[in-house]
Design brief:
With 579 residues, the protein is of the alpha/beta class. It folds into four domains: 118 residues, Alpha-Beta Plaits, CATH 3.30.70.1230; 193 residues, P-loop containing nucleotide triphosphate hydrolases (Rossmann fold, 3-Layer(aba) Sandwich), CATH 3.40.50.300; 47 residues, no CATH class; 154 residues, Arc Repressor Mutant, subunit A, CATH 1.10.10. Helices cover 50% and strands 13% of the residues. The chain is built from 23 helices and 16 strands. The strands form five sheets. A five-stranded parallel β-sheet has the order 10-11-12-9-13, with helices on both faces. A hairpin with a 2-residue loop joins strand 1 and strand 2. Helix 8 crosses helix 9, helix 17 crosses helix 18 and helix 21 runs antiparallel to helix 22. The longest helix has 27 residues. The N and C termini lie far apart (54 Å).
Length: 579
């Protein structure tokens, strides 16, 4: 191509890909010759970044295929595209254009070069992070050929082969709400609140299974990104009720015999149709949604489940609350599954509902957690010491326990265990990034000190201007369930610990290695001279800090005194200058 044509082709390709990336939360990092690299998890970290990248790749392929036809007609140029998708650590930033360096980019380029024109090859780790929401087939060792991705699906599959343990009381609350709705023929609102991985969706799924055919179950999931997503969960519910369609005729057929069937169908179709969600008045949509759900519940009790309500748009939250304010005339149960962020953005959630039930899901107690671990392990033999470490590390979170058990089977015998599984890291990284700059800075310094940390040690590692609000930031971290007072036997005003070690690992890994080394140096200097540190303990901590600030060191967390003493014996250096 001549330079002018080449520039035109390049401009069209770059602008088209950039628009797609930004729509899914990504950024264009490299534009060099025939290679374009987009990155996710830069400006904001999301637990579904791998799924976003997969959907962006599919949409970019479609957009570039359209662009190829235009270029062929205008310039006589054939354009073919190949895609590679990988995940891993990367260093992103720098002045000017977005800089990018890391193995993840190298792997993605290698996958793209191995792909045929029009193909999207995805690496094993990226595939594992989005497996439940994509369709792919094996294309060789550690690579898969991406076929499609589903917008409303969960990135991780809901595991149903393990038993549901320790949730008898919560199941009773859900069943009681359903019994009241059917007995009094009213609308009940049940909100299930809990951190990611505690089993909120599994709990509701189990109750729905127990009710069986006596109840009609419809599910809608709130999306964290995309265009026209305000009423997406309602759209899911309507489509399920209409057997995959949401046209005015199919909606009208559900309301057969109702005098206002045509009006309801018209308003819902206008609200749920692509690109038309702002055309109808909100009050009219709320009325139409209520009429449809009450009509569906008239013949058989209806259980409507809205997942991930913490991602819902304010207008949709208003819709759900409006469904519970009026008395209603049909047995309808609205189950809202959400993380604590819902109550942060809507503190008075469901305050006006007369029939509202809140279920606050807590981590599993030791007994149920042990029973779950036994079920997950199956025939695999786990030593008592490893069992104890697994239970302590997961801290009662069923998803963490499941993923750690998988990690254990894959890395048996490794000294670096427990390794932070990518699935858990994605969840925790997204959760930690939602913190403000003050709490984030404090959490990073605390991660340097250890799972148990003192206020004075964190204060020494903070910049001078950030030391004033330290107490307030610590209370914020306590309120969000990331750290807790303790450990037992220490002054609660001066001693804290991470809620569990996986949060410490995630916070530690998020620190750039240059800053990590600097903070280790400062901690070592301070610990070497503080009067309260016993000589034996000081040597142990100094050795551990020196080990972790070596170039190329991995963020392995020593979880027991024996491990820490082993690190100190191997890497005991007297001063930071030898590190």
């Amino acid at each position: 191509m001549d330079p002018e044509t080449h520039e035109a082709v390049n401009e069209h390709s770059v602008s088209g890909l950039t628009a797609v990336l930004e729509r899914y939360g990504g950024k264009l990092a490299i534009s060099a010759g025939e290679r374009l690299v987009g990155v996710f998890g830069v400006a904001s970290v999301h637990e579904d970044d791998a799924l976003r990248a997969a959907r962006a790749s599919l949409e970019a392929r479609s957009a570039l295929a359209t662009e190829a036809g235009i270029l062929l007609r205008r310039h006589g140029v054939s354009l073919a595209c190949r895609f590679g998708l990988a995940t891993g650590e990367a260093l992103v930033g720098g002045p000017g254009p977005l800089g990018f360096a890391g193995d993840a980019g190298t792997q993605a380029v290698m996958l793209a070069e191995a792909a045929e024109p029009g193909q999207i090859l995805i690496g094993r780790q990226a595939h594992g992070l989005a497996a439940a929401a994509i369709e792919a087939e094996s294309a060789g060792p550690n690579r898969f050929l991406l076929r499609s991705a589903h917008a409303g699906a969960r990135p991780l599959a809901l595991r149903l082969d393990a038993p549901l343990v320790g949730r008898d009381e919560e199941m009773h609350q859900l069943e009681a709400a359903y019994a009241r709705a059917t007995r009094e023929r009213v609308t009940m609102l049940v909100t299930v609140i809990g951190e990611a991985g505690l089993g909120k969706t599994r709990l509701v799924h189990e109750v729905a299974g127990r009710l069986g055919r006596e109840v009609n179950v419809l599910t809608g999931r709130c999306l964290p990104y995309g265009e026209g997503i305000t009423f997406w969960p309602l759209r899911d519910v309507v489509r399920q009720a209409c057997a995959g369609h949401d046209s005015p005729d199919t909606i009208k057929a559900l309301l057969e015999g109702e005098a206002d069937a045509a009006d309801v169908a018209k308003r819902l179709s206008s609200a749920l149709g692509p690109g038309n969600q702002g055309r109808s008045d909100a009050a009219e949509i709320f009325w139409a949604a209520r009429r449809l759900l009450e009509t569906l519940a008239r013949s058989r009790p209806l259980l409507v489940v809205f997942e991930d309500l913490h991602w819902a748009e304010p207008t949709f939250l208003d819709l759900v609350e409006s469904l519970t304010v009026q008395p209603g005339r049909s047995p309808l149960v609205l189950v809202c599954i959400a993380r604590p962020e819902l109550l942060e953005q809507r503190p008075a959630w469901a305050a006006g509902a007369a029939r509202a039930v809140f279920i606050d899901l807590a981590p599993l107690a030791e007994g149920p957690a042990t029973a779950l671990l036994d079920a997950l392990a199956g025939d695999q033999r786990i030593s008592p010491s490893t069992r104890t470490r697994l239970l302590q590390t997961a801290a009662g979170n069923p998803l963490y326990l499941e993923q750690l058990a998988v990690s254990l089977s894959e890395q048996a015998g490794s000294e670096a265990w427990p390794v932070l599984p990518p699935t858990i890291e994605a969840l925790l990284a997204a959760r930690l990034q939602r913190l403000g700059p003050g709490p984030s800075s404090v959490l990073a310094r605390a991660a340097i000190v250890g799972k148990d940390f003192g206020v004075q040690a964190v204060r020494e590692l903070l910049p001078a201007e950030a030391r004033g609000p330290l107490s307030r930031n610590l209370q914020t971290l306590v309120a969000k369930g990331l750290v807790q007072h303790g450990p037992p036997g220490r002054s609660p005003a001066e001693q804290y610990s991470f809620h569990h070690i996986l949060i410490q690992q995630a916070a530690y890994r998020a620190i750039p290695k240059s800053l990590r080394a600097e903070l280790h140096h400062r901690l070592a200097d301070w610990l070497e001279y503080v009067a309260w540190t016993p000589a034996t303990q000081r040597a142990e901590i100094l050795g551990y800090s020196a080990r972790d600030c070596r170039p190329g060191s991995s963020p392995t967390v020593a979880t027991t005194p024996r491990q820490r003493n082993s690190h100190a014996r191997r890497w005991r250096w007297p001063r930071r200058r030898t590190c």
